[in-house]
Amino acid sequence: MRHNISGRGFGRNTNQRKALLRGLVTSLFEHLKIETTTAKAKEAKKLAERVITMSKKGDLSARRLALTYIPNKNIITKLFTEIAPKITNRDSGYLRVLKTRFRAGDNSSMSILEFVDYDLLKGTGESIKGKEKKEKKTEEKK
Which among 121, 123, 119, 103 has a CA at the least distance from the CA of 111? Predict the structure, then answer.
C-alpha cells in the first residue's frame, strides 16, 4: 500500500529521477516550452513552479536555493533576470500542461509544458506598454 507516498517514481531510482526532472526543468527555462509525457510534465511543473516562486524574490539566498534545484548558472541567471521580472504580477500558476497527442511508439500520452504568459516571455506578445503605444499611434493617425 502507498500510504503517505507522494509523487511518481517513473521506474527509476532517486538519483535518476532527480536528474530527469532537473533536465526537464532546465529545458523548460531555456526554451520556455517543452513536450514530454503527461506524467513527467506534471511532476516537472511542481519543481519548476517552486523554483519560479524563489526567483521572484530575487535575492542572493533565493538564487543559491534555486541553484540546489537546477545546477546551471546560465539558466538560473536567465530565470532571475529575464523570466521572473515579467511574471511578478502573477502569484501562482505560472505553468500549464496541455495534452497534445499519443506517442506513436508506445501510445503514451504526450503534453506540452509551457508558461501561461508564453507569448509575453517569448517576445511575440505585447506588453501593456506596447499596447498603449499602438493605441496612441492609431489616435495620431486619425
Answer: 103
| pTM recorded for the entire structure | 0.80
End-to-end CA separation in angstroms for the chain: 71
DSSP one-letter string for 59-112: SHHHHHHHHHHS--HHHHHHIIIIIHHHTTT--S--EEEEEEEE-TTT--EEEE
Q: How many residues does the chain have?
A: 142
> How many whole angstroms separate alpha carbon 11 and alpha carbon 114?
25
Residue 24 has pLDDT above 80, yes or no: yes
Q: Please report the pLDDT score of residue 133 as a whole number.
A: 54
Nearest to 22 by CA among 51, 57, 55: 51
Within 10 angstroms of residue 44's Cβ, the number of other Cβ atoms is: 24
Q: What's CA 82's distance to the chain center, in Å?
A: 13
| Cell numbers standing for residue 22 | 532537473
Q: Which of 88, 23, 97, 22 is nearest to 52 (CA)?
A: 88
Q: State how far the Cα of 77 lies from the Cα of 104, in Å rounded to an integer.
A: 37
